Amino acid sequence: MPVKMTIFRKLIIMLLLLIIPILILHTYSNQVSVNVVRNEIKESNLQHLSFLLSQAEATLEQLSIAANTIGRFQVIDDLIHIHEKDNNYDKVVIKQDIIEKLRLSGASSNWINQFTVYSPQAGTGVTTLNEADYTEMFAPDRITENWLYRETAENGTSIEQFVKHTVYPGSRLIVEISFTVNNIRNMLDQIKMTGKNDPFFYHEDNRPILNRSADQSLANDVVHFLNGSETNDSGTEYVKLQGKQYMVNYVKSDALNWTLVDYVPMEYRLSPIKNSSLLFYASMATLLAMGIVVALMLYRNVQVPVSQLLHGVRKLEMGNFSVRLVNKQRNEFGFLLQRFNQMAAQIEQLIENVYSERLRSREATLKQLQSQINPHFLYNSLAFIKSMTELEEKEAVIAMTLNLSHYYRYTTRVENQETTLREELELVKNYLNIQSLQMQRLEYEIHIPESMLQLSIPRLLLQPIVENAIIHGLEPQMKWGRMSVTGERVNNKVRLIIEDSGESLSNQELDRLKHELEAPLDGEMGCGLWNVHQRLKFRFGQDAGVLLSHAALGGLCVTLQWTVID
């Protein structure tokens, strides 16, 4: 069954069609904004990391240049040949002079660093460190020309540092440059001070170098993620850590062979967009709620009254004119409902008036028919009594008088239009007895089940049928005539069958009679059958009425049928 598109449903669909495209467009726009912000954050962070790393590498380059220039100092040649000096004072002066120059070279960098110069030929060296074991420091397996992370111990304290060696041709001189990771931590601390970043240096074979206020647990999760990922020299990864989404940016240092890593929570960066989006969705939810409230108000004040009116109109269409609508509205629809009730009441009153008028009209018609039939019948009966009196046929006179008195006592009682089938059959017997006395060639039989005799029927229902059978069927014949009246009942279906042995009707004549039963009454047609047919329909419904057919006795068979209403 197709769903009816009511006004309320249309309003809801229009509201949804209004809101859904807006939500889709906003969601798409919000996603585009998020992607743009992500890309901007990624590019900004990568550029920032690259810039900081380039500054660090510039410092490392300065240290390397300083190491390369140390060998050009004249005093370095004195160190190479220091073993040739016999005077210890001269040796101390040479080393002191070299230390001053090493400190000057280290001062060119803003990082705290240490220089150590070692001459394999002299077997000694000079350092800015507190102490040094030159043999161990410059062992062949410890020499590296690239920056190398190394953990050493000094006075029982572990020191993390980066070391690089510059070996001059012929290994006549080896310069070691070193700086501790505190320099890197200082740089990381400065980076972190500018935002919510948490940078650190990462190498897959060593412990990460964290800033001093780093979240150790979160940094370890990032390191674990990087260890399990294939990364390039620089890039960005998105990873969920401890229930939050993070953007991990990294740039690899070519000089240190370490990677500068920075991770930032996306919630922090995208919170303005998220808050704006939440505000928009809250506004749309409020709009939707207000729309639903308005729709419900329209449903209550428009759809419900319209549905009531439709229901009332359908009831009127089905013939139920007693329908009344409950009116609780105080608006235009309340006026319409009130007027509908008034209209229905007026229609019902008009129908009742028409119904009553039809009853009065039919009763008047019946009384008119009685007045038209009875005088002619009475004249014939009185003429029969006069003739029989002259012939001194007392029994015939008595029988005619008794039947005639019973007949007129029944037909002239018009105050009650309902009777029983038993009383109606008594009238028919009186009428048939009168006709038998007059015609002296009429036989009749009546077979009605006892269970049907108490049925309530309209008065004068059988007599017009019997009279038509005699006048139009039996009287024109000069031979004996027969008539039968039988009854049958199946459940609530009742049938009374009147047959005569009169002249047989052709099919055309029978069809004409059937047509006249349904036609309006006029002055040119007989009204006996028509009146009985219409009264049956009026009393028992449209399924009741008169049926015409050929009789088994040879004449016309008239069947009265109706349904008993318990």
Automatic annotation (TrEMBL):
<dbReference type="InterPro" id="IPR050640">
    <property type="entry name" value="Bact_2-comp_sensor_kinase"/>
</dbReference>
<dbReference type="InterPro" id="IPR010559">
    <property type="entry name" value="Sig_transdc_His_kin_internal"/>
</dbReference>
<dbReference type="GO" id="GO:0005886">
    <property type="term" value="C:plasma membrane"/>
</dbReference>
<keyword id="KW-1133">Transmembrane helix</keyword>
<keyword id="KW-1003">Cell membrane</keyword>
<keyword id="KW-0418">Kinase</keyword>
<keyword id="KW-0812">Transmembrane</keyword>
<keyword id="KW-0597">Phosphoprotein</keyword>
<dbReference type="InterPro" id="IPR036890">
    <property type="entry name" value="HATPase_C_sf"/>
</dbReference>
<feature type="transmembrane region" description="Helical">
    <location>
        <begin position="544"/>
        <end position="565"/>
    </location>
</feature>
<keyword id="KW-0472">Membrane</keyword>
<keyword id="KW-0808">Transferase</keyword>
<protein>
    <submittedName>
        <fullName>Sensor histidine kinase</fullName>
    </submittedName>
</protein>
<dbReference type="Pfam" id="PF06580">
    <property type="entry name" value="His_kinase"/>
</dbReference>
<feature type="transmembrane region" description="Helical">
    <location>
        <begin position="278"/>
        <end position="299"/>
    </location>
</feature>
<dbReference type="Pfam" id="PF00672">
    <property type="entry name" value="HAMP"/>
</dbReference>
<dbReference type="InterPro" id="IPR003660">
    <property type="entry name" value="HAMP_dom"/>
</dbReference>
<feature type="domain" description="HAMP">
    <location>
        <begin position="300"/>
        <end position="352"/>
    </location>
</feature>
<dbReference type="GO" id="GO:0000155">
    <property type="term" value="F:phosphorelay sensor kinase activity"/>
</dbReference>
